[in-house]
Design goal:
With 364 residues, this protein is α+β, with helices and mostly antiparallel strands. The chain folds into two domains: 187 residues, Nuclear Transport Factor 2, Chain: A (Roll), CATH 3.10.450; 136 residues, Nuclear Transport Factor 2, Chain: A. The protein contains ten helices and 14 strands. The strands form three sheets. Strands 1, 2, 3, 4, 5, 8 and 9 form a seven-stranded mixed β-sheet that branches. It has a five-stranded mixed β-sheet with strand order 10-14-13-12-11. A hairpin with a 5-residue loop joins strand 6 and strand 7. Helix 2 runs parallel beside helix 5. It is globular and about 50 Å long. Bound molecules: 2-acetamido-2-deoxy-beta-D-glucopyranose (6 copies). InterPro entries: Cyclase_SnoaL-like, NTF2-like_dom_sf. It holds the Pfam family SnoaL.
Length: 364
């Protein structure tokens, strides 16, 4: 598999499943990737025959999301609610069609026979228009063959994984047309013993709270239109390198999940943004989709940068700072945030860590 090209992965779904399956990212396949990312373009087969979408309500679509995960848990892939021409966007710039995605799910079950997302209830679930956003924990016992970074099958570890999973879906008549998946793979690898420093059993994460059930503290008004506008300003400030609470609309009380195990406070978040700006002076977010409901906003973006300065990584990924590789990445990137009075009070940043390391050829 060392020599397989990116396109050959798409063409040979069984090989794609063997290498990519179960959210075990094929690091060796990413090393050649640069900022171009040919896979982040839709394939022709991914288009529906008609542009006429059948619109369901947000409540119907969020319910359908739950039903789809029920089918996943029941291993009932016939009722998975995916459109025949669905495009499934995985971490690592991998796009699968329905056959590839179903194969990947089967491979996932062979590695973790009891793998299931906790969808009753999700930690966060909301939507807008034809879009839904679901964030929760995925748990499973690794009781089957486990592909490592080179695709070699390791014997079952019998260890349990529990990590965040996000599904952002674009619906048409009760079926998913586009699915954006993110899984906290580094955390799973630490739990499996493939990376050092296993995380604590229970870690805080973004979740429903008295503030979010209902989805807004102001049910009389829907603040999401103005929050979406502010989110745009937040991204502009990010791109301009203005890592300041006012420019980025960050609450002094903010907690940001996704960079470390415990969550970062305001200063910790600003510090880490500054350190990434040193590593990637041209760091840039290109927003593709913003989804807002109540106090909640989710974004689908492409994050890109060229590694021109020292990069600090968590200790389980690197022993020390990684010197500039001069390589670039351009990968899907997601945020989910909760807003109060025009400021972000809690945020989850879903980074494609392994995809970035692969694009920069930084070995694990
Ligand atoms: C899927 O896409 C193909 C090619 O564009 C098209 O012929 C087919 O009708 C589509 N299927 C559905 C169910 O939309
Ligand atoms: C969309 O639906 C309308 C009404 O059913 C139909 O007249 C039109 O041809 C459809 N458009 C496409 C692109 O299929
Ligand atoms: C993957 O497993 C194979 C077989 O045990 C081993 O030779 C190889 O070094 C492993 N690769 C990584 C990156 O862990
Ligand atoms: C949000 O950001 C905009 C643009 O920088 C700024 O004008 C505004 O004051 C900020 N709002 C809050 C509540 O921080
Ligand atoms: C900070 O957040 C905590 C819990 O999320 C809340 O109880 C407290 O009132 C907040 N403080 C401010 C100044 O917003
Ligand atoms: C990256 O570019 C800098 C400046 O041009 C150069 O000094 C350095 O050797 C390059 N590093 C690599 C790994 O190519």
């Amino acid at each position: 598999m060392q020599s397989a090209t990116l396109l050959s992965i798409l063409e040979m779904s069984s090989i794609a499943a063997a290498c990519i399956g179960s959210f075990h990212l094929p690091i060796h396949e990413m090393t050649a990737r640069n900022s171009v990312n040919p896979l982040l373009t839709k394939r022709e087969v991914s288009q529906p025959a008609t542009t006429n979408d059948t619109h369901w309500t947000v409540a119907q679509n969020t319910r359908q999301m739950q039903v789809s995960d029920d089918a996943f848990i029941a291993r009932d892939l016939l009722h998975f609610n995916h459109h025949p021409n669905v495009s499934v966007y995985y971490p690592g710039a991998v796009v699968m069609d329905l056959d590839e995605h179903l194969q990947d799910m089967r491979l996932l079950f062979s590695t973790y026979s009891d793998m299931a997302p906790h969808n009753h209830n999700y930690r966060v679930l909301f939507g807008e228009g034809d879009w839904t956003v679901a964030l929760t924990q995925l748990t499973g016992t690794n009781d089957g063959p486990l592909p490592n970074a080179t695709g070699a099958l390791l014997s079952p570890t019998m260890r349990t994984v529990k990590a965040g999973i996000m599904t952002i879906a674009h619906w048409n008549g009760g079926l998913i047309m586009e699915e954006y998946l993110w899984v906290d793979t580094p955390k799973m690898w630490r739990q499996l013993g493939l990376l050092p420093s296993p995380p604590a059993a229970e870690l805080p994460d973004l979740e429903l709270s008295p503030y979010t059930a209902p989805l807004t503290t102001h049910p009389d008004i829907d603040p999401s239109t103005i929050n979406k506008e502010k989110m745009k300003q937040t991204n502009e400030a990010f791109n301009a390198g203005k890592f300041e609470p006012d420019s980025m609309n960050l609450s002094s009380n903010i907690t940001v999940y996704g960079f470390n195990d415990e969550g970062l406070d305001l200063q910790g978040f600003l510090d880490i943004l500054s350190s990434y700006k040193v590593a990637f002076p041209n760091l840039r977010l290109e927003n593709q989709q913003t989804i807002g409901q109540g106090d909640w906003i989710a974004t689908i973006s492409h994050l890109s940068g060229t590694h021109q300065g020292s990069l600090m990584l968590p200790a389980y990924l690197a022993d020390g700072p990684v010197a500039a590789t001069n390589k670039s990445f351009n990968l899907l990137h997601y945020t989910i945030s909760r807003w109060q009075e025009g400021e972000i009070v809690a945020m989850k940043v879903n980074i494609d860590t392994f995809g970035i390391l692969g694009a920069l050829s930084i070995p694990l």
